[in-house]
Amino acid sequence: MSISVATRPAASAVPGQAPTNAIEAKDLRVFYGDFMAVRDINLNVERRKITALIGPSGCGKSTVLRAFNRMNDLVPTARTEGEILFHGQNIYDRSVDAVEVRRRIGMVFQKPNPFPKSIYENIAWGARINGYKGNMDQLVEESLRGAALWDEVKDKLKQSGYSLSGGQQQRLCIARAIAVKPDIILMDEPCSALDPIATLRIEDLMRELTAQYTIIIVTHNMQQAARVADYTAFFMVDDTRTGYLVEYGPTNQLFTAPQDRRTEDYITGRFG
Amino acid sequence: MTIRSHFDQQLADLRDQILLMGSRVQAELTLALEALAHLDTAKAQQVFAADQVVNEMRFQVEEACFTLIATQQPAARDLRTIIAAMNVIVDLERMGDQAKGIAKVVPVLRKNPGQEMPGELRQMGAMVQQMLDDALRAYATSDADLARDVAGRDHAVDALYGKVFTKILQQMAVAATAERAEPIYDTLRVARELERFGDLATNVAERIIYLVTGAHVDLNEPLTSARPVPLAS
User: Which of A223, A267, A272 sits opposite B76 (nearest CB)?
Assistant: First the structure.
């Protein structure tokens, strides 16, 4: 069963207005075999905002991110408990098609991973697979413009995606993600392989993308979270190496007056 | 060595610089009040020199704050510490200006030794001195309760200002000449400087509460609340 926007129950408390939540984790637990990687995550992600997941290595932030589009399903031992509600529907329901989930909730990875194809085909291929029947040239241009890459590649669309710089490749991957018109884009440390200028360009792009998309980003760079995110969730890891959510709130509050001492210690660099 | 021990040392140095600047303002106010009490123009001159030092310290501390922000990417309490410092130094520098304002009237009053000084001025001086002392202590020890207590005393300073204001207006009403009115007006100016000093000490207290709790509070009452009732005609 695919997920239908039209039939979803409104999550908004205000009748007639679009729901403010893009996706919601409820009592989420993810296991790898017997090991519980994250526990009891409750997280409401606001629509068309940027939400950053931060925390020390091993706190489960990437596991939570991957739970949002069932990428953990690709790990044979992974098991998920609780719910991820997307348009009011649990994406882990048996009836839900994981491929459809991943089309609606796209992902950009740490290392740019363009297909070994032309710049044009990097966009067109995924759309074609998804049954796109419209004007492909137009879709390619729209997507590349949306990813702030069009002006740099419009004269070399037949060149390999690999011919681009790292920052351009990452924007190509973002263009590829938005070509299939997702609701949400998940980003797993999208700038960790990029230089500072390319990083700032991606951050500007993220801000522009919020006009149409919801973004959830995992980052090790706290300044990046402070710069780009509207909301920030801070995760920690307990003695059994299970990750959990400590504090979640508006980024400006989290970075100026966090409510929890553990958040304070982490973002001020007193805990590592 | 703990994580960020160098940064911690820089923040401790910043706090020490502010306390040093605060102690200079304390000394400047003491000097100004002594100059006023004895109409001592030599001491009044010393206030001007002391104020110059306070002004320079303000810019030194500000520069240190800029450097910490640019190089350390402070967040949370660290950020509040630096932002609070940048605000406190402005308030301290202005307190120095108020002390200088008191010193400025000393030569005028000295030329008019018969000018009566309302007893409330001495009271106000002692009160704002204590407010600054305690504000600096609250800053040194991150004591939000003491900071609130300091701010709470500003009402009493304002009330005394109201009394002085009424007395001075009464004197002005019967002053026959402009020459006679000038020292009376300057007496009011002293009261006004001390009242402002109390407001600035309250500002410092607010910054301490922000630093400690992360919450902005406005503890300054509008001046109008301290104004006296109109004089009977």
Answer: A267
